[in-house]
Amino acid sequence: MSVSTSTMAPAASSSNTTNVTKRLQKELMQLMMSPSPGTSAFPDDPCNLLKWTATIVGPDDTYFAGKTFKLSFSFPGDYPLQPPTVLFTTPMFHPNVDMAGRICLDILKDKWSAVYNIQSILLSLQSLLGEPNNKSPLNGQAAQLWDEDPKEYKRLLEKRHQEAE
Amino acid sequence: MEADFPDPTDWIQTPVPGLQALETSLRCQVCKELFTAPKVTSCGHTFCSLCIRRCLSASSKCPTCMKPDEEPRLRDNIVVSELVNSFNTIRKSLLDTLVAKEEARKQAEEEAQRDSRTRPKPEKRSSYDLDDDEIMEDAEPAHRPQVKKRRRQETITSRKPQEIEPPRRSTRTSSQRTNSRAGSSQVISIPDSDGDDDDFQPIEDLSEGEFRPSSRSKRKTTSRAPTTPTKKSDLVACPVCDRQKEQLAIQSHVNRCIEGNRSPSPSPGLANGTSSTGTPLKRQTASFSNISKSQHRAPYTAEERERLRLPKGNASLAKEADIRKKLRDHGIRYDVKGKETKQVLWTRLQEWTNLWNANLDSDNPKLKHVLIRELEAYERSQATQKHSVVQDKDFEREVWGSTHKPGFDALIATARNSRKKENGAETEATDQPLDSVAGAQAELTGIDSPEIVEA
């Protein structure tokens, strides 16, 4: 019993930067071993786990079906107490995403909790694609077209998405 | 990689993938490590002592369910602590056993296919099914952990000879039962997983051999005492020093607290902290060899913990001078010239309080200088993340700027128009207001320019 607790002591006594790294390593392992469908994430540089690139596939029955979107994750030094900064790097046309790829999502701001992880963010984003919050849009045009003119929305989305290629 | 970062997913490739769920629930959802000094919140969620203290300092909510909670309401989760400890002890040997078993099975399967002899394969398969089913469907739940553990240990012994000749396995379950006693006693003495951890343990055992177990059991019994409903429900947290006081005595306590704001709380904790660890700050650098030998002390008893607990305090009530004094009393570095803001000092004191209080809960408390080093390391790691805070602020400002930009543009346009008009009428008199308009304009464009560039 005493032996087992002592295994934790050296880990805890090492620098806290490695605490972030250790948690991210655990998350990476989890993502590799049991990924959730339609999402993936991987660190940009194996030496620096604070920057990741992730992809999500648009859910079926949405405007985004079949399209793949890339995201960048940047983790603060006190992750998971603070949320990562998440941006769409693929051009996006969505009510809650602005033209620079910044995302308006409560769990990435004030509703963030330390128990959330990369996987839960990706799943939230996937569902945000299908169910935007049109009450507080970052992209007013997208919010308006979403409800009023699905055809035009689709056209503009295609146009934006083609900028990626 | 597995050796360095043990992870619940290790169990996926074993014959018992269900262990992944077991290990996941033995891990803290914040740090994803096995629980260290687990604490249960008032809403029933369990976290490491340090993790939940940090979370509650950041926002007074349970990270899982977002219900409001506060530090004085945290309780020890003794069963989870024991579960983690016993699981951690068997983890490596269990994993090795299961992985070896799986490998042996695959190998045997391949061999069987190669030989095109079908006999060993179904036999072996059934022995697995039997084995796992027995564990899951054990009739007496009260004895289950023991049975399970014993069986796992048996597999260790039974594996060693059988690894070489897998086909004999079909008879294993029966043979296990016959010599189970001998098997289990044999295995307990194989400490293959904990090689690197024995370093300081014997030293402590030498110095206080009897004290450790007895203090631990004492802690367990006594720490349960405050949780008894009659006693704890009468306790209220003092709004000034955050200590738990009896309801009847709280008024007089608060009065005393307000009068002599700092006297009741930190000094006893501090004095005991240094004396009990036996390494006052001055001596630390000199006797380094001493320190490296024993960086830990025996676990604190429940009384000690209550006595040494540092109050959380209140940011708006605390005076900067008081914060400085507290930091100085604890031997924590701060800028003497006063270049650090109150916020920085306060954050440092909060993190120190979290580290200190969590350390009190630990089964293996660290000495004070180790904690101070951790505090410094933590601050260094925080320095790297400042950019993200700035980004958040920028983000808000940009949204605000872009939504109000038309308004600013209109203002600037009217200002220009009026300037033109007034220019024609009287040039000298309008000089002053014009300058201010131009200044405001410059300011506005100064604010606006980043948004324009980025948007």
Automatic annotation (TrEMBL), chain A:
UniProt keyword Cytoplasm, yes or no: no
Ranges for domain UBC core: 19-165
Recorded GO MF terms: ATP binding; ubiquitin conjugating enzyme activity
InterPro entries membership: Ub_conjugating_enzyme (IPR050113), UBC (IPR000608), UBQ-conjugating_AS (IPR023313), UBQ-conjugating_enzyme/RWD (IPR016135)
EC number, as in UniProt: 2.3.2.23
Classification via PROSITE patterns: UBC_1, UBC_2
Active site: C104
Keywords: ATP-binding, Nucleotide-binding, Transferase, Ubl conjugation pathway
PANTHER family referenced in this protein's UniProt entry, alphabetically: UBIQUITIN-CONJUGATING ENZYME E2 (PTHR24067)
Family: Belongs to the ubiquitin-conjugating enzyme family.
UniProt protein name: Ubiquitin-conjugating enzyme E2 2
Organism of derivation: Arthrobotrys conoides
UniProtKB/TrEMBL annotation, chain B:
First and last residue of the signal peptide: none
Top-level taxon of origin: Eukaryota
Bias-annotated ranges (Polar residues): 272-293
Composition bias type Acidic residues, residue spans: 129-139, 193-208
Domain RING-type: 28-65
Pathway(s) of this molecule: Protein modification; protein ubiquitination
Catalytic activity: S-ubiquitinyl-[E2 ubiquitin-conjugating enzyme]-L-cysteine + [acceptor protein]-L-lysine = [E2 ubiquitin-conjugating enzyme]-L-cysteine + N(6)-ubiquitinyl-[acceptor protein]-L-lysine
Biased composition (Low complexity): 172-181
The keyword Transferase belongs to this UniProt entry's keyword annotation: yes
Enzyme Commission number(s) from the entry: 2.3.2.27
GO CC annotation, single: nucleus
GO BP annotations listed: DNA damage tolerance; DNA repair; protein monoubiquitination
Enzyme class: transferase
GO molecular function, one term: zinc ion binding
Keyword Isomerase: no
Alphabetic keyword roster: DNA damage, DNA repair, DNA-binding, Metal-binding, Nucleus, Transferase, Ubl conjugation pathway, Zinc, Zinc-finger
SMART domains, sorted: RING
Compartment annotation: Nucleus
Pfam family, one: zf-C3HC4_2
Compositional bias per record (Basic and acidic residues), positions renumbered to this chain: 106-128
Segments for region (Disordered): 106-233, 258-313, 415-455
Function comment: E3 RING-finger protein, member of the UBC2/RAD6 epistasis group. Associates to the E2 ubiquitin conjugating enzyme UBC2/RAD6 to form the UBC2-RAD18 ubiquitin ligase complex involved in postreplicative repair (PRR) of damaged DNA.
The family this protein is said to belong to: Belongs to the RAD18 family.
Protein name: Postreplication repair E3 ubiquitin-protein ligase RAD18
Species whose genome carries this gene: Arthrobotrys conoides
Lineage: Eukaryota, Fungi, Dikarya, Ascomycota, Pezizomycotina
